[in-house]
């Protein structure tokens, strides 16, 4: 086969372009810090990176859910704690009222304070987090109690709000109102589908009735109900604390997963800069060598050709 000068030049130009392309790819790797710029550079590596990035996005969503759920529970814990403090004060006032040495004016003052504490309990029952009621299950656009302490919502069909905080891991974040504020079952039995009065409010009303009628027996009887209600509040608060602790552990686990997946992603797609610099030097030398060889093939003048 006869090899012409044009063939030599074309082969030389192809080789130079190939070497230049290789050097350009290495320069792109250095500039971006990534091993591949397009899927065709490394299909398997790109596929792994997509999976790792998907995992990171999912973990970040779980972490946001954990943060939101924790905030919800912390608001709830504060509200439950306030109810406990109110009940403690009501108990103190009840013991004081049961003292037979009280003057009529003393019981009037006690009755007035208990009336205000009752209003505060109703206010706490309608506490909201980010515009959502925390004690109404998934019916977060509703209040729990009206101004008289009666339940507004149908408690028999109220489910709890949940957050997805991990793969197949959901946590209930709210306390349905009757779990904390109780139900006055005196008139309704166990039927919670009927709008009825909160047990805590019923205790307040019984106590106020006893104070207003000077019924010492009724006043003393409310002490037992107050103690039972306080025990329930403590139980609810402990349950909330356990959930907050669980979320803290979950957050730590998700942070560890973020570090692990981020490291895997970096190992998969980030370049070793020292190695890449060495690779660039090699490609530069190859390209310079091809330029030098090409200068001998492409003679710029007849005199250069005759040398």
TrEMBL record:
Q: Which family does it belong to?
A: Belongs to the bacterial flagellin family.
Q: What is the lineage of its organism?
A: Bacteria, Bacillati, Bacillota, Tissierellia, Tissierellales
Its predominant location is other
Which species is this record about? Anaeromonas frigoriresistens
Name this protein carries in UniProt: Flagellar hook-associated protein FlgL
Recorded hits in PANTHER family, A to Z, give: FLAGELLAR HOOK-ASSOCIATED PROTEIN 3 (PTHR42792:SF1), FLAGELLIN (PTHR42792)
Which domain of life does the protein's organism represent? Answer: Bacteria
Assigned keywords, A-Z: Bacterial flagellum, Cell projection, Cilium, Flagellum
Is-annotated flag, keyword Membrane?
Answer: no
Show where the Flagellin N-terminal domain sits: 4-140
Q: Which GO terms describe its cellular component?
A: bacterial-type flagellum hook
Family annotation (Gene3D superfamilies): f41 fragment of flagellin, N-terminal domain
Ranges where the Flagellin C-terminal domain occurs: 225-306
GO terms for biological process, alphabetical: bacterial-type flagellum-dependent cell motility
Which Pfam family is one of those matched by this entry?
A: Flagellin_N
Task: List localization entries.
Answer: Bacterial flagellum
Q: Which NCBIfam families match?
A: flagell_flgL
Keyword NAD part of the UniProt annotation: no
Q: Which InterPro entries match?
A: Flagell_FlgL (IPR013384), Flagellin (IPR001492), Flagellin_C (IPR046358), Flagellin_N (IPR001029)
* Gene Ontology terms for molecular function: structural molecule activity
């Amino acid at each position: 086969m006869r090899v012409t000068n044009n063939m030599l030049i074309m082969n030389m130009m192809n080789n130079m372009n190939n070497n230049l392309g290789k050097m350009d790819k290495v320069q792109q790797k250095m500039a971006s810090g990534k091993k591949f710029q397009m899927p065709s550079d490394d299909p398997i590596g790109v596929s792994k990176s997509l999976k790792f990035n998907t995992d990171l996005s999912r973990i970040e969503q779980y972490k946001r859910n954990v943060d939101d759920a924790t905030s919800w529970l912390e608001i709830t814990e504060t509200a439950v704690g306030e109810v406990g403090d109110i009940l403690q004060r009501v108990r103190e006032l009840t013991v004081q009222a049961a003292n037979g040495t009280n003057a009529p004016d003393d019981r009037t003052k006690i009755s007035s304070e208990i009336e205000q504490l009752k209003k505060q309990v109703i206010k706490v029952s309608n506490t909201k987090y980010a515009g959502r009621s925390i004690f109404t299950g998934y019916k977060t656009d509703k209040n729990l109690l009206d101004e008289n302490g009666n339940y507004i919502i149908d408690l028999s069909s109220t489910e709890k709000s949940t957050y997805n905080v991990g793969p197949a891991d959901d946590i209930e974040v709210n306390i349905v109102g009757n779990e904390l504020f109780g139900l006055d079952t005196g008139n309704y039995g166990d039927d919670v589908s009927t709008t009825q009065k909160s047990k805590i409010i019923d205790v307040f009303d019984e106590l106020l009735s006893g104070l207003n009628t000077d019924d010492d027996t009724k006043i003393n009887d409310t002490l037992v109900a107050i103690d039972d209600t306080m025990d329930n509040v403590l139980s609810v608060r402990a349950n909330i604390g356990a959930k907050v602790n669980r979320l803290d552990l979950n957050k730590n686990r998700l942070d560890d997963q973020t570090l692990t997946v981020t490291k895997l992603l970096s190992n998969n797609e980030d370049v070793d800069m020292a190695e890449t610099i060495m690779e660039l030097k090699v490609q530069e030398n190859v390209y310079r060598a091809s330029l030098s060889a090409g200068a001998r093939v492409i003679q710029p003048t007849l005199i250069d050709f005759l040398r």
